[in-house]
Model the fold of this input.
Amino acid sequence: MRKILLTKFVISILLSVFSLAYAAEYKNPELLVDVETLKKIKDRPDVVILDTRDKALYDKGHIPRAINLGAPASKVLRDQAFRVKKVAALEKILGNAGIDNNKHMVIYGSSTIKEFPPQPAEYGTAVPFFILEYLGHKKVSVLNGGIEAWTKAGNPIETNENKLPQTTYKADVQKQTLVTTTEMIELVKKKYPKTVHIDVRIPEIYHGEIINGFRGGHIPGAINIERTQNYDRDTGGFLRADQLAELYKGIPKNKRIVVSCYSGTGAAHSYIALRLLGYDVAVYDDSWLVWGNNANLPAEEEVPLDFFALIQRVQGLEKQVKELREQMKK
Done:
């Protein structure tokens, strides 16, 4: 009898361990690579490492063989209004950088978390990752923990600029990954059929306590899960699979997820996290930058911008600048 009980106990323990191990796996683990994996694959001819940071940071030191687009990738791949550039323009940029559709793209940036605005430095890898998936790139991975993880592990960096021969990039656009304002209006009107909308901005902005734009508040029906919750504060890497699953436990797996923020930048961070968990997810590219600045579109917890207070603030800043200039003349 004791042997039977002991056997059952051992089996239950093994099942528990197996369940925990299974639960710790991402649904799409290939979207992340760790430092050890990158060390093994970085010299393969089918792998392109893209440093998404500013060129000045790239020049100070980067992962061997990494290329750079000449400026933060999130800026190069979007227009001045923070919108994803036209497909033809993106194809030209990527082709000129030596990137083609068959390459395994490993992208990295800085993983340092800023408190406010609460985002990894320079917007990092999230925007280029999303854009590459929007273009239908088959194999894109993020170096978890960024260049900090690479250097902390004692790996070398180099300062020479790497260039690849120009090639042709041909997009296979995945329209379902990008939500337009026209589509968002319909989703709001129909109360999000088979869809969940997550606003990833900080709660103070979501609730209209801080106004960034023509007015404060959020798009009707959106729930709030702030974007930096996807990251481990100590390492700057993504949370483990079980931790991410806990963060999004209230979000049904059988629904399409739309993520938004102010400019589409922060939303791209949550896009990666939700993709890791296997969700069908899309970015509302225009986000509050367009929606919030259009008074004809509805908003919840709407707070109009106090223009009088804004003018006073600008006048105060102008006065400070004038005083500084006077001091510099002395």
Remarks:
- Residues 2-23, 115-122 have pLDDT under 50 and may be disordered.
